[in-house]
Structure of ABC transporter ATP-binding protein:
Amino acid sequence: MTTNVIEIRQLTKDYGNNRGIFDVSLSVKKGEVFGFLGPNGAGKSTTIRHLMGFIQADQGSCQINGLDCLRDHARIQQALGYLPGEIAFMDDMTGLEFIKFMAKMKGMTDLTKAYELMERFELNPQGKIKKMSKGMKQKIGIICAFMHDPELLILDEPSSGLDPLMQNRFIELVLEEKQRGKTIFMSSHIFEEIERTCDRTAMIKDGRLISIEELQTLKASKHKTYQIMFATEELAEQFMNEGFECEQVESTVVKVLPRNNLNYLLATLSRYDIVDLDITKLTLEELFLHFYGGNES
Ligand SMILES: Nc1ncnc2c1ncn2[C@@H]1O[C@H](COP(=O)(O)OP(=O)(O)OP(=O)(O)O)[C@@H](O)[C@H]1O
């Protein structure tokens, strides 16, 4: 019996020309908020579509609460909250009509939470969807995903199109739901959102997972950078040739990137005339770029 809510094992969907997803494995525990980070075209939506049972994998499997995502998709979909990357709306409906329609599909009779969410996101749902902005449509998608109070939420770039105030409201909502024990799997390329909400995160690039690390680990000492100010420009340049992974940020200042041997760094620095040393933790964004070799998209 599985203790994980989501279990993805060696999932591969090959669209040809190195596009698709390859050998993706990850699991999400009950009560965890799991962030799925990656640039455009990395394979986030493809992975999520497998979870929803919309597409069949070439190899590998995925399960939700022990059920097979493809075979048991109807049962799975009924229970969870899903926000697609691109929402297919019925444009002629008003926002409220659509929300009520979705509520009926979910077998909901009590719309209290839906109205609470409309208020929280300051959505006036009266107008026709076709006349709504991208942000308004995104709010409707979020409301539909959360309104039946599901135990599991799968969200594909949930705050895309939201302004910073509403992004913040969304983060607060996720934190509240997390507090209530909900399991949330969400893709994003908004680092702050991931950093503030997620227990763990996976990074995907070109269809392959790069790393899954505890956010705690990400924030730990091995991901610090050292900013060193040398007494002269010549010394900074001399240091640049010592073979460390580093970059010259000003004429006398060099930033030493993580993954260097700290003992060797300190031993080397003891030979130099140093004016100042700053230690900064890498943000998730810097880490992301670091993993991606500085190429974000
Ligand atoms: N049905 C399909 N047929 C062919 N190629 C596809 C199909 N669906 C996705 N792809 C390709 O697979 C790769 C992954 O796409 P996917 O939509 O999963 O990326 P993503 O990480 O969700 O990106 P974005 O942030 O842009 O939404 C891309 O190269 C995409 O062009």
